[in-house]
Amino acid sequence: MMSNTKFILGVYEDEDILLSAITNIRTAGVKIHEVYSPFPVHGIDDVLGYKRSKLSIVAFLFGVLGTSLALTMQIGMMGVDWPMIIGGKDFIPYPSFVPVIFELTVLLAAYGMCFTFFIVSDLKPWAKPRIFDFRITDDKHVMAIDLDQNKIDVAKIDQILKDNGASEVNKKTFDEA
Amino acid sequence: MSLIFWYIGLIPDFATIRDRAKNKISKSIYGALSFGWDGATKTWSRYETVALVLAGLATPLVLSVHTIVSMDFATSVIPGWHTTIFPPYFVAGAIFSGFAMVLTLMIVTRKVYKLEDYITIQHLEMMNIVIIITGSIVGVAYLTELFIAWYSGVEAEQYAFLNRATGPYWWAYAAMMTCNVVSPQLFWFKKIRTNIAATFVLSIVVNIGMWFERFVIIVTSLHRDFLPSSWAMFYPTFVDVGVYVFTFGLFFTCFFLFAKFFPVINMAEVKSIINTTGEKAK
Lengths: 177, 282
Prior knowledge:
The complex is a heterodimer. Chain A has helices at 15-27, 44-48, 55-81, 94-120, 154-163; strands at residues 3-12, 34-36, 141-146, 168-176. Chain A is of the alpha+beta class. A four-stranded antiparallel β-sheet of chain A has the order 2-3-1-4. The longest helix of chain A has 27 residues, at 55-81. By secondary structure, chain B is mostly helical. Helices cover 74% and strands 0% of the residues of chain B. Chain B is built from eleven helices and no strands. The interface between A and B is large, with 55 and 46 residues.
């Protein structure tokens, strides 16, 4: 089934104007689909009402997994599978396990977090992203407003965007299967 | 770990190149490399968290990697390798030689790509200050090794270090000391550490010095061990030289490919700092 998604795009050149515009536009009752920027704008998450990303918790959990795997593996190999008598040393010498524990913890934390990031943000080599404006990856910020999610009249949204410092207001339609 | 840290940093810039690409082939290649990056605030917000956590994980990794490499030497019983100072000494040496190598490559890249406005003299000066500090730490480590060898009272240790400094490989030891400890001290002079040509020359001197450090640690410790009957000199075969030349080829091939096709400066990061769109830009 084909469906058309129509967007109104407000193009902003200055991140300070953008930040105040977001607050004003949201108080005017317009629902913002998303804001696209060439670089991370500080403080934009708060004005858009986004919560802090939980990816650091994900990293911690993967780190715990790495630690447990490293411990289980080494205790299993050195203590259970193949205990070796070397000068009366303990079969499970924890100090010498530290490097492997550390490396596996860091490795799983990093890769686990990054792959979770790719999955939740839908980043993959074969992704076909919606490109609202080619200048987003250069020097323009674009605020996208989904018309299906807003009951306000198009002309009015247009006016609100212009009143709040948008340098251009464009329309874009995506045909999506 | 380094691979993913490196790649994550490149993703937004691949998207920039994708959107500027003029032909279909490069558009689709950079499109795949950029993983469909669209610059959404939500993604940026997650991206920042990821970058922060990765940096936090990678920092102790610098210590652990070099510490463990040095412990591979330190846990052996070869005099000259069997020293407890190796872990901090290798970490300092790694930062020292890393900064020198980056300076060597960066000064040339900066000139060729005309990046003088992005990589300023101040950046070079700061890097040179790190080189003085780490070079001096390495110097202290060399002297500590000598002192401890003498102070330990172990004959084999004492001989290993005496032989290192005054034996048949004295020239390698002298080259290491001059290049790594003496030459970076020139950076105490502001005129020298803010001079690009001098920095370039000294960075190469440090690279050579760090090569000699490895040579001294490995060759001079092994060429005379406990049995005088197995004492020998080291003569590289054509295979040794070939592998050495190959490493240069491999490194520079990868480096040049990177410089040609990938961004040499992280554009998204620079944009957020130089305020291209902010109030201060006007």
